[in-house]
Design goal:
2 domains, alpha/beta, two-stranded antiparallel ribbon, TIM Barrel, eight-stranded mixed beta barrel, Alpha-Beta Plaits, 16 strands
């Protein structure tokens, strides 16, 4: 690439002036090795390199340039931050990640006690566990029913993914899904969950309850993944109306066009859609015009304090009124106690989900208990 070749020249000039060696270790990653340098020497050289990159301009034509190239510089010192190349490079990468987290165009000295390092180590830790779970197909599915409040009848089962942690305990998605998305592993996880649920629906062909599957923003933005899921659903020979795809409002708003495209591809196959954590964003009502969804699952932040918060009750009344007009179902999430049931009913909410009605259970238990009626 033109800008990478130009940057190589800029950094070669820095290396020559500072008596150090330049190595290219990635498409846009460079390493400056300063033999026998003190920390102050390394910091000065890093600052000079950062200024040189910031001042660099790409000449595309006589009158056009691209400016505002950013860089992040990490520093690791031998032998304090590693006694061999592998250790030094690993800690140099950690320092560079810290510089990026600090806001780019920054220099960061490796700090074994930094929050950024701990966060990076957590990402590496969970990335390894996720890759191992995918390779072994070691995924466990749980479910929790959403119910009609008045009758306690289940209306669908929401499926949750678990994978083993380093001690063999099942970890829920909140512990690893952000890492899966950052590492590009979320589509593989989502694909396996959809495949498992389609198998469950096939085995439960005599049942009637739908299953809902949560999808990541990375998955629905991947056109190849969308086509694969469409082929899986169309070739599954199950009643597609028993399959609900849940997309969080945040994920939908991160890529509005991709979300709309995903719904447009899968709706003709018969699948239904839920907008999860509804109300968490600032443009919730506007985006209902773009997304042809069937279900609105209210963010738990509105439900937990419903008995004491007039604003939350007003929001739920507005959502229920709108949903009734446009033919959507509203489900209140995170119902953890009976105190919120009365205000829920007063806002017109007819459906809910949470531990007050039923905890999450292994999906295989549906073979013994169809879960159509819940007592609380």
């Amino acid at each position: 690439m033109q800008h990478t070749a130009g940057l190589s020249g800029v950094l070669r000039a820095v290396a020559r002036d500072r008596n150090c060696e330049l190595y290219r270790i990635g498409e846009d990653q460079f390493l400056l090795h300063i033999p026998e340098a003190l920390r102050e020497d390394a910091q000065v050289t890093a600052a000079i390199a950062l200024d040189a990159v910031r001042d660099y301009r790409i000449q595309l034509s006589h009158n056009r340039i691209i400016a505002n190239i950013t860089a992040s510089v990490g520093i690791a010192l031998y032998p304090f931050h590693g006694a061999d190349w592998d250790s030094l490079l690993a800690n140099l990468d950690n320092a560079t990640c810290q510089a990026k987290d600090d806001g780019r165009n920054r220099v960061a000295l490796f700090n074994p006690a930094s929050d950024a390092l701990r966060a990076n180590n957590r990402r590496l830790h969970w990335s390894g566990l996720i890759e191992e779970a995918i390779a072994r197909d070691d995924l466990t599915l749980y479910f929790q029913p959403a119910v009609q409040i008045r009758s306690r009848q289940a209306v669908h089962r929401e499926v949750f993914l678990r994978i083993p942690d380093d001690k063999g305990r099942l970890a829920d998605a909140v512990q690893f899904m952000l890492t899966a998305e950052a590492a590009g592993l979320a589509p593989a996880l989502d694909q396996r969950v959809v495949a498992r649920v389609l198998t469950q629906l096939h085995e439960d062909s005599g049942g009637s309850l739908p299953y809902s599957v949560n999808l990541s923003a990375n998955s629905i933005a991947n056109s190849d993944w969308v086509l694969e899921i469409e082929d899986m659903v169309r070739g599954s020979e199950i009643n597609p109306e028993r399959l609900i795809f849940e997309i969080t409002e945040k994920a939908a708003m991160e890529n509005v066009d991709a979300t709309a495209h995903f719904i447009e591809r899968l709706r003709p196959a018969g699948a239904r859609f839920a907008l999860d954590d509804f109300g968490a964003g600032f443009s919730s009502f506007y985006y209902l015009k773009r997304f042809a969804v069937d279900i609105l699952k209210i963010d738990g932040g509105f439900t937990r304090d419903l008995d004491a918060n007039a604003e939350s009750r007003a929001f739920l009344r507005a959502v229920n009124g709108l949903a009734q007009d446009i033919g959507h179902i509203v489900i209140a999430k995170a119902v953890e106690n009976g105190e919120v049931l009365k205000p829920l009913k007063e806002t017109g909410t007819q459906y809910a989900q949470g531990h007050w009605f039923a905890p999450a259970r292994p999906l295989l238990q549906t073979a013994q208990d169809d879960g159509t009626s819940i007592s609380a």
